[in-house]
C-alpha cells in the first residue's frame, strides 16, 4: 500500500512540481557550462523514498498558484551535514558547518535563471531575518555558473536585507544532495543532522514552512 501511495505521489509530482531542472537551465547560463551540468542527476525521489504524507500540496489556498509546488523528503533524516566547500559572503571558501556555527541551519539551493527560486527568495529573506533571533541560520547558495557579479547585481536589485551571496558554481552541494531540481532546501538541527529536505518552491510564510522551521527551532 505504501508503494502504491508513493507511486501516485511521485506521478503527481512529475506533473505538478514547479521546480527547475538544472540541465534545462544550462542554456541560460551559457553553452560553456554544458560540461558542468551534464553529470547532474535528475534528482527524482524514488517511489520507496516518498511516503504518503509527502505528496505535493496544491497551495491554491495560499495563492501560490503553480509556482509553490514541492515535496518534503525525509528519507535522508539523520544524515550528517556535508563538508563540501563553496564560496561564502566574504569571497572565501567555506562550508555549511562553518556558517551554521553549531546552530540549526536551513540551506537553500537556487539560481537566478530559476523562476520558482526567484519567487521563493523574498520569503526566505524575511525568514532569515526572523530566524536569526531564534538562533537559526538561513542561507541561500547560488548554483549559477556565470560571473559572481551577475549574482551580486541580482541580489542588489531585489534589496534583500538578510540573505547574502553564497556561490557554488561547481554544484558541489547539488551533487552531494543528488538533486537536479531547483530550488532544493535542506534543514539541519543544531547537531548538523538532516531533519528534512524540500524539493521545489515552498511559501515559507505559510503553514508548511512554519511547521518545518519549528522542527529545527525556528
Please estimate the helix content: 25-40%
Strand order in the largest sheet: 2-9-8-5-6
- CATH fold type: Glutaredoxin
Distance between the termini: 34 Å
SSE layout and pairing:
Layout: H1 2-16, E1 20-21, H2 26-29, H3 34-37, E2 70-73, E3 86-87, E4 93-94, H4 96-100, E5 105-110, H5 115-132, E6 137-142, H6 148-158, H7 172-177, E7 181-182, E8 184-188, E9 194-200, H8 207-215
Parallel strand pairs: 5-6
Antiparallel strand pairs: 1-7, 2-9, 3-4, 5-8, 8-9
Structure, explained:
With 218 residues, this protein is of the alpha+beta class. It contains eight helices and nine strands. It has one domain: Glutaredoxin. It has a five-stranded mixed beta sheet.
Keywords, separated by commas or semicolons:
Glutaredoxin; globular; 218 residues; 5-stranded mixed beta sheet
Task: Give a brief rundown of this model.
The chain is of the alpha+beta class and 218 residues long. The protein contains eight helices and nine strands.
Amino acid at each position: 500500500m505504501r508503494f502504491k501511495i508513493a507511486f501516485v505521489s511521485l506521478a503527481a509530482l512529475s506533473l505538478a512540481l514547479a521546480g527547475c531542472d538544472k540541465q534545462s537551465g544550462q542554456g541560460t547560463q551559457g553553452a560553456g557550462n554544458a560540461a558542468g551540468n551534464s553529470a547532474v542527476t535528475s534528482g527524482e525521489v524514488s517511489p520507496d523514498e516518498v511516503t504518503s504524507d509527502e505528496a505535493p500540496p496544491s497551495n491554491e489556498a495560499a495563492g501560490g498558484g503553480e509556482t509553490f509546488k514541492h515535496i518534503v523528503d525525509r528519507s535522508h533524516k539523520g544524515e550528517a551535514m556535508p563538508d563540501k566547500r563553496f564560496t561564502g559572503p566574504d569571497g572565501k571558501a567555506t562550508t555549511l558547518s562553518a556558517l551554521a556555527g553549531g546552530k540549526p541551519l536551513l540551506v537553500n539551493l537556487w539560481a537566478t535563471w530559476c523562476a520558482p527560486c526567484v519567487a521563493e527568495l523574498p520569503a526566505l529573506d524575511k525568514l532569515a531575518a526572523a530566524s536569526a533571533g531564534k538562533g537559526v541560520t538561513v542561507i541561500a547558495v547560488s548554483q549559477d555558473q556565470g560571473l559572481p557579479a551577475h549574482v551580486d547585481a541580482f541580489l542588489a536589485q531585489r534589496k534583500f536585507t538578510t540573505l547574502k551571496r553564497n556561490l557554488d558554481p561547481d554544484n558541489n552541494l547539488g551533487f552531494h544532495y543528488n538533486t537536479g531540481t531547483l530550488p532544493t532546501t535542506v534543514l539541519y538541527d543544531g547537531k548538523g543532522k538532516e531533519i528534512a529536505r524540500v524539493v521545489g518552491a515552498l511559501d515559507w510564510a505559510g503553514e508548511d514552512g512554519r511547521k518545518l522551521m519549528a522542527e529545527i527551532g525556528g
